[in-house]
Input
Amino acid sequence: MKIDIEGYDQEVLKELWSCKIYPEYISAEIHTQDVVDMQLKNRLYRGFKVVVGRDAESQYRNAQIATTNEGETYSFPRHAAGLFGEDIDGQWFDRRSVHRHLTKTGIGWKDLHAWRLDDGKYVEVHCELSEWRRLTKHHIERILPGPILKFLRRLL
Output
């Protein structure tokens, strides 16, 4: 699951995890230390990669990505988030290594990708879809400025 909602990634992570939803791969934009801390403190996620947003266009030109059939070559446009999950180059790092890396390089226009190693020590319990919609609507109404919310309601 890729989360990129310009400053509200932390709210989505909170809601997912409060509903016990733990995708195998999850990625969030790390403009704040709170988002980094949330991902690194969740003990279900044990592997991490960092993708620098400004480098995605050049780093992933003609990238091979997995699809439901076989795979395809894709070039990411400017301002794209880049690859996801196992398609990202390089090895997965532990939380301590990623923490050290981010301490040296800083946060910003970067995505922190996390991988959940399913070791069978927990059970996933999903929220009912109606509950998920209610929570999502509540948070959208709480965080969006009035004119934007009014515009979105007209679209939907």
Notes: Residues 2-125 form one domain. Confidence is low (pLDDT under 50) at residues 120-126. The first helix runs from residue 9 to 18.
